[in-house]
From TrEMBL:
<feature type="region of interest" description="Disordered">
    <location>
        <begin position="691"/>
        <end position="712"/>
    </location>
</feature>
<keyword id="KW-0653">Protein transport</keyword>
<comment type="similarity">
    <text>Belongs to the nucleoporin Nup85 family.</text>
</comment>
<comment type="function">
    <text>Functions as a component of the nuclear pore complex (NPC).</text>
</comment>
<dbReference type="Pfam" id="PF07575">
    <property type="entry name" value="Nucleopor_Nup85"/>
</dbReference>
<dbReference type="GO" id="GO:0045893">
    <property type="term" value="P:positive regulation of DNA-templated transcription"/>
</dbReference>
<keyword id="KW-0906">Nuclear pore complex</keyword>
<dbReference type="GO" id="GO:0031080">
    <property type="term" value="C:nuclear pore outer ring"/>
</dbReference>
<protein>
    <recommendedName>
        <fullName>Nuclear pore complex protein Nup85</fullName>
    </recommendedName>
</protein>
<keyword id="KW-0472">Membrane</keyword>
<dbReference type="GO" id="GO:0006606">
    <property type="term" value="P:protein import into nucleus"/>
</dbReference>
<dbReference type="InterPro" id="IPR011502">
    <property type="entry name" value="Nucleoporin_Nup85"/>
</dbReference>
<dbReference type="GO" id="GO:0017056">
    <property type="term" value="F:structural constituent of nuclear pore"/>
</dbReference>
<dbReference type="GO" id="GO:0006406">
    <property type="term" value="P:mRNA export from nucleus"/>
</dbReference>
<keyword id="KW-0509">mRNA transport</keyword>
<keyword id="KW-0811">Translocation</keyword>
<dbReference type="GO" id="GO:0031965">
    <property type="term" value="C:nuclear membrane"/>
</dbReference>
Length: 712
């Protein structure tokens, strides 16, 4: 597990972020919260990365809900830990996707991140300052170094007749479980060695060892009935039993264990050498060099298996220092595992704040103090409960604001539940202290950085809103406003979403700017449909001058056909006296579009009598809606007279203003239709008087009457 400092999977994205963040991360003095450019490399077009960002935002929103629900109390550690594990689930999924794409460097990078995050989760979120940290460390080591899923299927497949190589791998697995503190799992695995094919002595030794491993006491912090004092008493009694069984020769009777008795004063280096002989370096999943002879036959595993088990495991259970030195075997296990090994069998009750001292002791014993990687430095900072240093190193290694933000937010949500009082620290002799006050400004800076970065993204910008909204005291609102001002919608759908969100925040000026921008882009494209679409955006913008301009363009330069829904919108947003005629015009257009000819005639005559129709629109309005003149039954009373007089005036105006011949022809055709309608009305009236049958008018055929009118 080697952390790399750069990932090739990301492309740069310029965004807004506070200078105070850069100051904190460089250990310099903050210069305020001004906005400046900040380059980050963490967005790509790959769908799985987008899913990773979206999934993280969903968990973040859940954290904020939990924080508000529990305020002013902190969110319980159990809830925060479960949310942290959700983040880690997405990290591991990202690793798998990166591996699938062949980017093994980035996959290893984020696999390391999960390893570090898990440890920070223990130190800052899960563990309680007054209880042992060991149970959490056991789970951490087991999760990251367990080889059961790789080895056990082979053991099960071979049954009771295990091959020498498989036996060797099984011993390896048993040792690792003992080292990690998962002794019950080690006891379960021992049963594969004590089957029917094994000798009675081996079966007896395996049964005794299974009993010891299964009886090892475990402290569970989540168990309210657990007592630390009771656990210490049980652990001491169990370890005394291990010592007594070893001293009483419980494992004698076998040549292998007889060898143990003969070599009870064997130097630790000799034990280490024998231990090396059993394992082949290539079978070790961590890839560590055992530096031992590799030409021994595999049968040494069977010959020395119980020997090493008796000397290493039995003495390890007793907490013997020589056994610990043998377990190391000059690089057999990592320093993380060795530290947990020490805690498991010598110091099982240390508190989180005391962990750093034992880690340093481990590093010194293994001569690794000057050989630490960046990942190791982060773990040591976490043991010091130094949040600032942890976040600084994480940001330097992973160069991704996603990591530092979500981790600091979880620590913030957990609040002061993991902080000890000065008296408690002094009483326990803690070597580390947690300064919660520094978490708040760091979280705010990361929120600002990550939120504005998302707001600059083409498709993920909506995710940034929940992060900026999480800034305390409404500090995110002006930042969101600034982001809206810099955002150029690339589609009408995005513009609609921007307007919807801006309305929610009450950003009136930003709404006007977005709508005006889309409106002008529609006008540039040209065409009747684009002009009407532009009119809709102008209405949304509340721009009086622009709306009037577009209406004039449609009415005077276009076909004077405005969509009914747009007319309704105009009526609700009349911005200028020159648009007052649109009220009557909208009523007229709706009646015509719905086939209500009579209502259309009434509305048209009303506009003529009130004189609201602009002269330049007269011919267009009459010619584009001439369908109402096709049915004489649409006209009553003086409607025909009103229209004929208006058409005559329009015809005179048209000739005086030198209109083109096409427009004159349209007026002449309208006049001819009105003459037919008038003749139709006269004949209907004549027949009514002659027959006294009023319903005859309704049954008359219009075309027939028009034919008669022509004859007339």
């Amino acid at each position: 597990m080697k952390a790399e400092y750069k990932s090739k999977v990301f492309r740069p994205l310029v965004t807004l972020a506070p200078r105070s963040l850069a100051a904190v991360l460089s250990n310099s003095t903050p210069s305020g919260g001004e906005l400046t450019t900040w380059s980050r490399q963490f967005f790509v077009d790959a769908p799985f990365v987008r899913n990773f960002v979206v999934a993280g935002a969903e968990v973040f929103a859940t954290v904020q809900k939990e924080y508000k629900a529990h305020y002013p109390d902190p969110v319980p550690p159990k809830i925060v830990t479960s949310l942290s594990r959700m983040y880690r689930t997405f990290l591991l999924e990202l690793c798998q996707n990166l591996k699938a794409t062949g980017d093994l460097t980035s996959a290893d990078l984020y696999s390391n991140l999960d390893f570090v995050w898990n440890f920070c989760e223990i130190m800052f979120l899960s563990s309680h300052p007054d209880f042992p940290v060991l149970p959490y460390l056991v789970d951490w080591i087991h999760l990251n170094f367990d080889l059961t899923s790789e080895i056990l299927p082979k053991v099960v497949a071979e049954g009771s007749e295990l091959e020498e190589e498989t036996t060797l791998e099984l011993w390896n697995l048993i040792y690792s479980h003992v080292f990690h503190g998962t002794t019950r799992e080690a006891a379960r695995l021992l049963s594969y060695l004590g089957g029917e094919s094994a000798s009675s002595t081996t079966q007896r030794h395996v049964a005794l060892m299974e009993e010891l491993l299964s009886k090892r006491p475990e402290f569970r912090p989540e168990d309210a009935a657990s007592s630390l004092t009771e656990f210490e008493a049980l652990f001491t009694a169990w370890q005394e039993e291990c010592v007594n069984r070893l001293e009483n020769g419980a494992f004698s009777g076998s040549p292998n264990f007889t060898l143990v008795c003969k070599c009870e004063k064997l130097h630790p280096q000799r034990v280490a050498y024998q231990f090396q002989c059993i394992f082949d370096a290539e079978s070790n999943a961590n890839g560590f060099d055992l530096r031992g002879p590799r030409d021994l036959p595999v049968t040494v595993g069977g010959k020395y298996g119980l020997f090493v088990m008796s000397h290493i495991n039995s003495n390890i259970l007793c907490g013997d220092d020589e056994a610990f030195a043998s377990a190391v075997a000059r690089g057999l296990i990592t320093w993380y595992e060795y530290m947990v090994l020490l805690l498991n069998y010598k110091y099982p009750t240390i508190r989180p704040a005391q962990l750093k001292a034992y880690a340093v002791r481990t590093l010194q014993q293994l001569d690794l103090v000057d050989k630490l990687e960046a990942r190791d430095a982060i773990l040591l900072h976490a043991m010091d409960l130094d949040v600032v240093s942890v976040l600084r190193e994480i940001t330097a290694v992973w160069d991704n604001p996603w990591v530092a933000l979500h981790l600091s937010d979880l620590i913030f949500a957990c609040g002061r539940s993991s902080i000890s009082t000065s008296a408690q620290k002094q009483r326990r002799g803690d070597d580390a202290s947690f300064d919660f006050a520094c978490v708040v400004p760091l979280r705010n800076d990361f929120l600002l950085e990550y939120g504005t970065t998302l707001m600059e993204h083409e498709t993920l910008w909506q995710m940034g809103l929940c992060y900026l909204d999480a800034l305390p005291d409404g500090k995110g609102r002006p930042v969101i406003r600034t982001c809206f001002q810099h955002r150029n919608p690339f589609s009408e759908q995005e513009a609609q979403k921007l307007v919807q969100i801006a309305e929610r925040y009450g950003f009136g000026d930003e709404i006007k700017g977005i709508c005006r921008q889309i409106c002008l882009s529609k006008l540039k494209r040209g065409g009747s449909s684009q002009a009407q679409n532009a009119l809709l955006w102008a209405i949304k913008a509340g721009d009086e001058a622009l709306t009037t301009r577009i209406v004039d363009k449609i009415l005077f330069e276009g076909d004077a056909q405005i969509d009914v829904a747009l007319l309704d919108a105009l009526l609700a947003n009349v911005l200028d006296a020159s648009l007052a005629f649109l009220h009557e015009f909208s009523i007229f257009r709706r009646a015509v579009s719905e086939g209500r000819g009579r209502d259309g005639v009434v509305s048209l005559c009303s506009m003529i009598k009130r004189g609201v129709i602009p002269k330049r629109l007269a011919i267009k309005i009459l010619s584009k809606n001439e369908s109402i003149f096709d049915d004489g039954s649409n006209f009553e009373g003086d409607d025909v007279t009103t229209l004929m007089e208006y058409v005559q005036r329009t015809l005179v105006t048209q000739r005086g203003d030198d209109y083109n011949s096409e427009e004159e022809r349209q007026v002449t055709d309208l006049n001819r239709k009105l003459i037919k309608i008038r003749a139709y009305r006269i004949m209907c009236e004549f027949r009514r008087k002659a027959t006294g049958a009023e319903e005859e008018e309704e049954d008359s055929n219009t075309e027939f009457v028009y034919g008669e009118a022509d004859d007339y």
